[in-house]
Amino acid sequence: MKHQFRIIISGEKETRLLSRILIILNRRNLKTNHINAYNNNEKKTINYDVQYVVDLECEEEQLFKIKKLIEKLIGIIHVYYYKLEDKNSRKNLCKKMDFPLVTY
């Protein structure tokens, strides 16, 4: 059964890194729903860090294989992933409300 996952990939600033990641995903015929890339250049160092956010629809077994393949690429620092919940699930219907503590 296919689920939606979000993969967050942090790596060095390299122009061909995103294209290598997309080639890996296209070879596996995975459906990508969303791709985002942004710089974390708050620190003025030599190597800038870039984060790529990719939303996928795949099975968990495929996700583990893809994570290993992406981690093997040169320039990848770390790969995080988590499962996205459905918008219509019961967990999202009952939202937690944080009320401020009022003292008199």
Give a brief rundown of this model.
This protein has 104 residues and is α+β, with helices and mostly antiparallel strands. The protein is 26% helix and 37% strand. It has helices spanning 17-27, 60-71, 90-93, and strands spanning 3-12, 31-40, 49-58, 76-83.
Strands, helices and their partners?
Blueprint: E1 3-12, H1 17-27, E2 31-40, E3 49-58, H2 60-71, E4 76-83, H3 90-93
Antiparallel strand pairs: 1-3, 1-4, 2-3
Mean pLDDT: 81
Radius of gyration: 18 Å
Order of helices and strands: EHEEHEH
End-to-end Cα distance, whole Å, is 53 Å
Q: How many helical stretches?
A: 3
Major sheet: arrangement of strands:
2-3-1-4
* Main structural class: alpha+beta
Contiguous low-pLDDT stretches (5 residues minimum) are none
Biggest β-sheet description: 4 strands, antiparallel
Strand content: 35-45%
Structure description:
By secondary structure, the chain is of the alpha+beta class. The chain contains three helices and four strands. The N and C termini lie far apart (53 Å). The model has no long low-confidence stretch (mean pLDDT 81).
